[in-house]
Amino acid sequence: MRSVSYVVAVVLALAQSPASQFAGTWTASLEGKTFARLELTDAGGKIGGRISLGAVHFGPGGDITAVNEPASNFTPIFDVALRNGTLTFSRKDGDETDRFELRLVNGNAQLTFVFSEADRAELAAQGVTSLKPTTLIRLR
Protein backbone atom coordinates (compact mmCIF):
# COMPACT_ATOMS: atom_id res chain seq x y z
CA MET A 1 0.00 0.00 0.00
CA ARG A 2 2.86 2.35 0.80
CA SER A 3 4.31 1.92 -2.72
CA VAL A 4 0.93 2.81 -4.30
CA SER A 5 0.78 6.04 -2.26
CA TYR A 6 4.32 6.88 -3.33
CA VAL A 7 3.51 6.28 -7.00
CA VAL A 8 0.39 8.48 -6.77
CA ALA A 9 2.41 11.28 -5.15
CA VAL A 10 5.07 11.09 -7.86
CA VAL A 11 2.46 11.11 -10.65
CA LEU A 12 0.70 14.13 -9.12
CA ALA A 13 3.98 16.00 -8.77
CA LEU A 14 4.92 15.31 -12.37
CA ALA A 15 1.45 16.31 -13.58
CA GLN A 16 1.81 19.85 -12.24
CA SER A 17 2.57 22.46 -14.85
CA PRO A 18 5.85 24.30 -14.40
CA ALA A 19 3.90 27.49 -13.62
CA SER A 20 1.73 25.86 -10.95
CA GLN A 21 4.82 24.71 -9.05
CA PHE A 22 5.56 28.37 -8.25
CA ALA A 23 2.00 29.25 -7.17
CA GLY A 24 1.49 29.95 -3.48
CA THR A 25 2.59 32.26 -0.72
CA TRP A 26 6.31 32.42 -0.02
CA THR A 27 7.99 34.22 2.89
CA ALA A 28 11.41 34.95 4.31
CA SER A 29 12.00 35.94 7.92
CA LEU A 30 14.89 36.73 10.20
CA GLU A 31 14.55 36.74 13.99
CA GLY A 32 10.76 36.54 13.70
CA LYS A 33 10.49 39.51 11.31
CA THR A 34 9.15 38.82 7.82
CA PHE A 35 11.15 40.84 5.33
CA ALA A 36 9.81 39.28 2.12
CA ARG A 37 6.41 37.96 1.14
CA LEU A 38 5.70 36.82 -2.40
CA GLU A 39 2.21 35.72 -3.46
CA LEU A 40 2.07 33.96 -6.82
CA THR A 41 -0.98 32.73 -8.72
CA ASP A 42 -1.28 30.46 -11.73
CA ALA A 43 -4.14 31.21 -14.10
CA GLY A 44 -3.94 28.67 -16.90
CA GLY A 45 -0.16 28.68 -17.02
CA LYS A 46 0.12 32.46 -16.68
CA ILE A 47 1.82 33.52 -13.46
CA GLY A 48 0.87 36.72 -11.68
CA GLY A 49 1.09 38.07 -8.19
CA ARG A 50 2.45 40.63 -5.81
CA ILE A 51 5.43 41.14 -3.54
CA SER A 52 6.11 42.93 -0.28
CA LEU A 53 9.67 43.69 0.77
CA GLY A 54 10.95 45.27 3.94
CA ALA A 55 14.24 47.07 4.48
CA VAL A 56 17.19 44.81 5.28
CA HIS A 57 20.89 45.11 6.04
CA PHE A 58 23.39 43.01 4.10
CA GLY A 59 26.56 41.78 5.78
CA PRO A 60 29.93 41.73 3.97
CA GLY A 61 29.36 38.12 2.82
CA GLY A 62 26.08 38.99 1.12
CA ASP A 63 23.79 37.53 3.79
CA ILE A 64 20.87 39.47 5.23
CA THR A 65 21.98 40.21 8.78
CA ALA A 66 19.17 42.45 10.05
CA VAL A 67 15.62 43.44 9.25
CA ASN A 68 15.39 47.22 9.58
CA GLU A 69 11.73 47.32 8.55
CA PRO A 70 9.41 44.32 8.05
CA ALA A 71 7.52 43.74 4.80
CA SER A 72 4.20 45.58 4.90
CA ASN A 73 3.11 47.04 1.54
CA PHE A 74 2.45 44.95 -1.56
CA THR A 75 3.25 45.95 -5.12
CA PRO A 76 2.17 44.00 -8.20
CA ILE A 77 4.75 42.08 -10.17
CA PHE A 78 5.08 42.34 -13.95
CA ASP A 79 7.31 41.18 -16.83
CA VAL A 80 6.82 37.65 -15.47
CA ALA A 81 8.54 34.93 -17.49
CA LEU A 82 9.37 31.28 -16.83
CA ARG A 83 12.44 29.99 -18.68
CA ASN A 84 14.48 26.89 -17.95
CA GLY A 85 13.07 26.54 -14.42
CA THR A 86 13.73 30.16 -13.47
CA LEU A 87 10.90 32.60 -12.88
CA THR A 88 11.88 36.20 -13.58
CA PHE A 89 9.77 39.22 -12.67
CA SER A 90 9.91 42.90 -11.84
CA ARG A 91 8.18 45.38 -9.55
CA LYS A 92 8.03 49.15 -9.38
CA ASP A 93 9.65 50.85 -6.38
CA GLY A 94 8.86 54.52 -6.80
CA ASP A 95 10.54 55.62 -10.02
CA GLU A 96 12.82 52.56 -10.07
CA THR A 97 12.19 49.04 -11.30
CA ASP A 98 13.47 46.14 -9.18
CA ARG A 99 14.20 42.83 -10.92
CA PHE A 100 14.20 39.32 -9.43
CA GLU A 101 14.85 35.68 -10.25
CA LEU A 102 13.15 32.80 -8.44
CA ARG A 103 14.22 29.15 -8.53
CA LEU A 104 12.69 26.16 -6.74
CA VAL A 105 15.23 24.22 -4.69
CA ASN A 106 14.36 21.25 -2.45
CA GLY A 107 10.79 22.39 -1.75
CA ASN A 108 11.79 26.00 -1.03
CA ALA A 109 12.49 28.90 -3.35
CA GLN A 110 15.65 30.90 -3.86
CA LEU A 111 14.94 34.58 -4.55
CA THR A 112 17.76 36.53 -6.15
CA PHE A 113 17.67 40.31 -6.26
CA VAL A 114 19.04 41.40 -9.63
CA PHE A 115 20.69 44.67 -8.64
CA SER A 116 21.57 47.46 -11.05
CA GLU A 117 25.19 48.53 -11.44
CA ALA A 118 24.43 51.62 -9.34
CA ASP A 119 22.98 49.47 -6.52
CA ARG A 120 25.99 47.11 -6.68
CA ALA A 121 28.37 50.08 -6.47
CA GLU A 122 26.48 51.43 -3.44
CA LEU A 123 26.64 48.04 -1.71
CA ALA A 124 30.34 47.67 -2.57
CA ALA A 125 30.99 51.08 -0.98
CA GLN A 126 29.41 49.65 2.18
CA GLY A 127 31.73 46.61 2.03
CA VAL A 128 29.21 44.17 0.52
CA THR A 129 31.01 42.51 -2.38
CA SER A 130 28.69 39.59 -3.13
CA LEU A 131 25.02 38.88 -2.59
CA LYS A 132 23.43 35.55 -1.79
CA PRO A 133 19.95 34.38 -2.80
CA THR A 134 17.28 34.59 -0.11
CA THR A 135 15.49 31.37 0.84
CA LEU A 136 11.71 31.63 0.78
CA ILE A 137 9.47 29.10 2.53
CA ARG A 138 6.06 28.19 1.04
CA LEU A 139 3.19 28.86 3.42
CA ARG A 140 0.43 27.42 1.24
Topology:
Blueprint: H1 2-15, E1 24-30, E2 33-43, E3 46-53, E4 55-58, E5 64-69, E6 74-83, E7 86-93, E8 96-105, E9 108-114, H2 117-125, E10 134-138
Antiparallel strand pairs: 1-2, 1-10, 2-3, 3-6, 4-5, 6-7, 7-8, 8-9, 9-10
Number of domains: 1
Strand content: over 45%
Radius of gyration from the alpha-carbon trace, in angstroms: 17 Å
Q: Specify the number of helices.
A: 2
Looking at the structure, what is the overall shape?
globular
Lateral strand order in the biggest sheet: 1-2-3-6-7-8-9-10
Count of DSSP E strands? 10
What name does CATH use for the topology?
Answer: Lipocalin
The structure class reads alpha+beta
- Please outline the major beta sheet: 8 strands, antiparallel, barrel
Distance between the termini: 27 Å
Give the SSE string.
HEEEEEEEEEHE
Helix percentage range: 10-25%
Low-confidence stretches: 7-15
CATH class: Mainly Beta
Overall pLDDT: 88
Which second-level CATH architecture applies? Beta Barrel
Descriptors for this entry?
140 residues; alpha+beta; Lipocalin; two-stranded antiparallel sheet; 10 strands; globular
Could you please describe the fold and organization of this structure?
The protein is α+β, with helices and mostly antiparallel strands and 140 residues long. The chain has one domain: Lipocalin (Beta Barrel). 16% of the residues lie in helices and 54% in strands. It is built from 2 helices and 10 strands. A hairpin with a 2-residue loop joins strand 6 and strand 7.
